[in-house]
Amino acid sequence: MNVLTIKEKWGMSPLILLCSLLLLIVVPFITRDNFLLHVIILANVYVVLSAAWDICSGYLGEVNLGHAAFFGLGAYTVAYFDQWFELSPWISTLIGGGVACVFSLFIGFTSLTLKRDYFVIVTIAFAQILWSIASTWSSVTGGEEGIRHISNFSSKVIFNYFFALGLMVVCIAILYAIVKSRLGRILLAIHEDEYASKAAGLNSSFYKILTFGISSFLAGLIGGFYAHYLGIVTPESLSLGVTFNVMAMTFVGGSTTIFGPIIGAYIITFLAQYLYFFMDYRLITQSLALLLIVVFFPGGLIRLIFKSAYR
Amino acid sequence: MLLETKDLTKGFKSLLAVNNVSFNLDRGEILGVIGPNGAGKSTLIDLISGFHMPTSGTIRFKEEEITKLKPHLRVRKRISRTFQITRVFRKLSVWDNVSVACADTREFEQGIFPADSDKRALEILRLLDLLKLKDQRAGSLNHYGLRKVEIAKALATRPELLLLDEPFSGLILDEINDLMGIIKRVHQMGITIMIIEHVMRALMNLSSRVIVLVYGEKIAEGTPTQVSMDEKVINAYLGKEAKLFARG
Amino acid sequence: MEPLQIIEIFISGIVVGGLYSFTAVGMTLILGVMRVINLAHGSFYMVGCFATYFILVQAKLNPILGLFLTILIVFILALFVEKLIVRNTKTDLMRVSVATFSLAMLSEEAIRIKWGKVYRTIPTFIPGTTSYYGITFDNQRLVASITAVLVITGLVLYIKKGRFGRAIRMVQQDTEMASLLGINVDVVNIMVFGIGAALAGAAAGLLAPLYMIYPSMGWPPLLKCFAIVILGGMGSVGGTIFASFIFGVVEVGTAFFYGSQWAYAAVFLIMIIILLIRPKGILGKDIF
Q1: Which domain holds residue C64?
Q2: Contact at CB, A201 and B92, closer than 8 angstroms
Q3: Which of the listed CATH numbers 1.25.10, 3.60.21, 1.10.3470, 3.30.1300 matches domain A34-305?
Q4: What distance in Å separates the CA atoms of residue C206 and residue C68, rounded to the nearest whole number?
């Protein structure tokens, strides 16, 4: 898997970035199309999810197949805390991130010190068990129906739109800072040769657990937002479907990059939402496409387009 | 006394890779380790650097017992090593390889990136004559370049004891001379060195003292001259050749 | 709680464990020899179940023939999967995980589109029950379990004694050395993958009539196999068999006392406990 080097500076022309951001800011003022706004909000949610997934699974190489679990944990936490404690949605969202992070620390301690295969297995098992509990323990989790009437940040679409946009920008900025810093290169080093990184004095277990914790925190955070935005939370948010979407978006865009997941998230979210008449065949198309990409074009779109910046 | 091992033993099932090896290493020495292939020399380095745990015996470093200490913690105690088959981060640049090793977790945990680490990295690259290549992807370097990056990584952690595992293997004459110069300069910086090697010219030239391992046991110890005249050592090397010769 | 109940749970558990051992051994072979995590292993089982459904219910063929056909179908599918997908991606954990995951999704969706989400049943072909000392068993379940143990014993013997079995063991220990000694590692790999999947297919053929089948039925077996393999030790056939039995007993016991939905959580709990105490598993070797 080819990866960024210090040679390229931004990974994306600052001009393109700025233009895209401006475009996103301006959109709600030039259109009355609420559906479009909704799709962009959804895309932004998946941007955060995918980029967070990529930093753990792509950069660090610890493939987390239970990412949805942390997204869902954030969502359910928010639902409960709003009900029991009547907290402000801002605080409960943060707590959602925190709860997800705490669970990830527990999982991390048990499996990140072992061979990479174990982490894959434990994470997927964790997500499936949570999903199963959420679906069947109706008395506590509302079962398949989930929990309804979660308080909003605001009932106005515009507010949610800009909140999602802002949250996305902040999360991406955090991840970008990590990737560009020495921590980012430490992760790449551990990914490539953990033994050698230990010989170089790095406490690899610490960095692995740290990265997984950050990844899960962000997933839980955006999960909390999502629950507030939709007003309900269902076991669907814990399902393999979410993780599958994240995998597809990251890979289609290009893994082990920050901008790959962003591109992938937008493309797939828009396709999925606008081609709704195709809904029954969406998953099969997505899985076939992803399979082909993984086997034949593992670098993703961003490496096809921006050939010079990435190797 | 910097390093002391006592009756160090490492067994793998029925095979004793290292068998009751005891030796001392004083600060400022260069200790050479020689012996036929499979004699347990690399295992010895693995034991001292923490990548294997001994079956029995002790290792003391700077008066502290480190026998069971984890590898990255030994690095913090200032022991570094290189690997026989280079384990360089090929996907990172040369500069990144060294700067990643310069990260001291303690400082990171306190939110402070080591202020002098960039300076340190530059000095090391200059010492190893890698400055011009610093932005190049490590994987694109030739064999000697990789060797140097491997050593640079080991130096980045400010070791007091440097363990070199066959650094000269696969090098051509010019490179051997060049590396000998580098190792001498590293030594002049005050770093104690323990070096395993088969390239006799280099090892005998650099070492102030040599120990000889055969089948995991230390059979001789002394200055390079003493060891090369020791009958047991000659038998160990020549003996093998004589046997091969006899078998035709 | 009567002693009879405990015995019944225990024996039930052993029988269930025997059933699981088929698929679990398939997974441990692939993990041990090829060192590949195959997230589509449950899909092989699921596809096998639907193949059995098609053969027995829709084509109405003889059950024994059906079993062999199912195994054959799954085996051939697996050969293609290995050649096209696994071979290319197994060097990179991320790629192979995503690829096998996508494959699992793909097969689930393909089956769903063809047959719908409806839960279907296949009539058992070994009808009736047997009773010993007041404990009753379905004959189908009993026969399936005994067959599983026999087949696996045969497989283990073959691996230990047979020529091809020797080749497999050599590839597992040292791939490079094996190829230097003239063994075609690619062929060994593809065969091992095929056999591993075929075991899942065989399990499907025997078990499909016992439970309901539906497109997403592949995931629970996948996770249970993971738990069993971790418990028994990755790559160790003996450990996996032993672990299957333990697992069966725990599952039946948990379902009896707490209800079947918590059995799933018990799976996870076992996994975590093992990883904390003895990550190698009962008879496993390398973990780092």
Answers
A1: 3-121+130-277
A2: no
A3: 1.10.3470
A4: 10
When divided into structural domains, chain C yields a total of: 1
| pTM score | 0.89
Contacts across the A-C interface (CB distance below 8 Å): 120
Based on its alpha-carbon atoms, the radius of gyration of chain B, rounded to whole angstroms, reads 19
Q: Which CATH superfamily is domain B1-78+162-176+194-248 in?
A: P-loop containing nucleotide triphosphate hydrolases (3.40.50.300)
Q: Where are the domains of chain A?
A: 34-305
**CB contact (8 A) between residue A284 and residue C110:** yes
User: Contact at 8 Å (CB) between A236 and A75?
Assistant: no
Domain residue spans of chain B? 1-78+162-176+194-248, 89-159
Q: Are strands B64-65 and B56-61 parallel, antiparallel or unpaired?
A: antiparallel
Q: Do chains A and C touch (3 or more CB pairs under 8 A)?
A: yes
Distance between CA atoms of A43 and A38, rounded to whole angstroms?
Answer: 9
Residues of B in contact with A192 (CB under 8 A): 89-92
Chains B and C are touching, with contact defined as 3 or more CB–CB pairs separated by less than 8 Å: no
Whether C46 maps to a domain, the answer reads yes
Decide if C197 contacts C78 (C-beta within 8 A).
yes
Q: How many residues does chain B have?
A: 248
Q: What is the ipTM of this complex?
A: 0.90
We report the CATH number of the domain holding residue C222 as 1.10.3470
Per-residue pLDDT of chain B (248 residues; tens, 9 = 90+): 778 877 788 877 777 888 888 888 888 899 999 888 776 788 889 899 988 888 888 898 888 888 888 888 888 888 999 998 889 999 899 998 988 887 664 544 444 455 667 788 888 898 888 888 888 888 899 999 999 999 999 998 888 999 999 999 889 999 999 999 999 999 999 999 999 988 888 888 899 999 988 888 888 888 888 888 887 887 777 655 544 444 44
